[in-house]
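Lab notebook, bench 4. Continuing the backlog of folding jobs that were queued last week. Each job is logged with the same field layout so the records can be merged later without manual cleanup. Today's entry covers Glycoside-hydrolase family GH114 TIM-barrel domain-containing protein, a 280-residue chain. Filled in by technician R.K.

JOB TYPE: sequence-to-structure
TARGET: Glycoside-hydrolase family GH114 TIM-barrel domain-containing protein
LENGTH: 280
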Amino acid sequence: MSRRNVRRQTMATVFGLTALLTAGVGMAVTLPPANGKFDYQLAVPYTPAADVAIVDRDRSAAPATGKYNICYVNAFQTQPGDTAWWKKNHPDLLVKKNGQFLIDPEWPDELLFDTSTAAKRTALMQIVGPWIDRCASDGYKAIEPDNLDSWTRSAGILKRTHNVEFAKLIVARGHAKNLAVAQKNAPELSLQGATTIGFDFAIAEECQVWSECEDYTDVYGAQVYEIEYNDNTEDADGNPVDPLSFYNAACKARGKDISVIYRDRGVLPSNAPGYVYKSC
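JOB STATUS: finished
OUTPUT FIELD FOLLOWS
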């Protein structure tokens, strides 16, 4: 057995024991079907194909009938349409640099939540927490708290430990409502995410592009749900590639073990021009 396979088996054992111990204290979460066909519908909801088992939608949308539903929550930064509300009502909970709201070039229409102190994390949970509760009351079975890695875009103002502590609050709130909670982003936190933070599974965007997929699968096994996009025209070294090549490579490497899908960047509805969806 190779060293990597030994590590994968060890991580799976650790995660399995953690899940059993958590279940032993009364948590009643239901995990998504392992290697279940997955559909990512964050823009406009649409009727999923009959063979789709798992649907991921924005928290503002109703769950899909007859599917395992995951509720998307932008838990570490603002949604574009909500930024003005946050500036007006909670400017103290947004990251600032030199007295000005920090603008992230990658997401210029979103601002980062300031998770840097326990008091701010508690205040943020007074807003984010009810979003999670609503996911549960609407009938979702899990949440996808996005942008765990926001500290990497904070110009050094936030630290990894700040987001880890906020993630623990998110997981606790989700589990209290019998919701499974996904790790999204920050593959370097996967082991800590499963064993310390308490994440139950992972949603991995573009992990083939960045050679990060095993960081997730070593820990979460078959309960990793991978999304590759159709606009990645360069590899990690800047060389031009066919974006479909990432999806094809992912299917070859992991398609028998985990759910891998290929989507348009806008995750458009199935009747819209530009809609792209493949699965393996």
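OBSERVATION: Confidence is low (pLDDT under 50) at residues 1-26.
SIGNED: R.K.
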